Amino acid sequence: MQDDGTIEANARTVARAGEKLAELLERPLAAGLYLVATPIGNLGDISLRTLAVLTRAPLIAAEDTRHSRKLLSHYNIHAELTPYHEHNATRELPKLLARIEAGYAVALISDAGTPLVSDPGYKLVREALDAGLMVTSIPGPSAALAALTSAGLETDTFLFGGFLPPKSGQRQTRLAALRETQATLIFFETAPRLAKSLEDMTALLGPREAVVARELTKLHETLHRGTLETLTTEIESQPVKGEVVVVIAPPSADDVEVDDACLLADLEAALKTMSFRDAVHAVTEARSVKRARVYQLGLSLTKRGE
Known about the structure:
The chain is α/β, with parallel strands linked by helices. The chain folds into three domains: 4-141, Tetrapyrrole methylase, N-terminal domain (Cobalt-precorrin-4 Transmethylase, domain 1), CATH 3.40.1010.10; 144-248, Tetrapyrrole methylase, C-terminal domain (Methyltransferase, Cobalt-precorrin-4 Transmethylase, Domain 2), CATH 3.30.950; 260-305. The chain is built from twelve helices and ten strands. The strands form two sheets. The chain has a five-stranded parallel sheet with strand order 3-2-4-1-5, sandwiched between helices. A five-stranded mixed sheet has the order 6-7-10-8-9. The chain is globular. The N and C termini lie far apart (79 Å).
């Protein structure tokens, strides 16, 4: 139970948020294209700027108007809603640009999360920029970043791979191309395809740490942690439902095969501007290989030079 002090503090927080929203709503909304991030599940994740833009924009372009209308109705937003997706983009894109050129603000939203992340909109942004129109992003929820930051894997370098191909052969080809990428990998996947995708990931990427995140920000949010192999077994025995993000650790030094010729070329280039010690360290870090191996190759270079 909350005491009087807590209740008063909460009331002040609500009041300050209301004041900020009111301040934003009073400002005119300039003509342009607004890329607006919306909640990926929990409606409480909406930002004040998102509410202010969607409330003031005379036109909102949505991937699925039926889905988006639920969000807008929840916050009592009654802007004109028009569909914009990959199947009607050729027809609708010129209309949206014409509205902006006529002095209107157009907001673009996806079904959930940040527009253009595995959603349509790229061509609209490019053509708006080419036409000299203002384009601005209203940042907010992202399933890819929510999964990455809660996975407990490396976050300094990551690669978002979107949805992998639905067919196993094409999926394996894509995974093979990413096998030596020195970054944490992030993929979206559908629940029905998850088990087969994990099988291919295990076969192509090996026993890496991984996380399967499902229903992020929702009531039944779950993060399954383990190796790709153990996760494959777990998902096969207990299939999951809902929307899924797979996060996979980068390869270890032992997973990446770098031939001596590449290392020697790197060392020769590094030695032009660095000391022997620094060059060995730089190549070791860049290639994620054992220092002893790089050191021995470096010695062979210096002996050759002598």
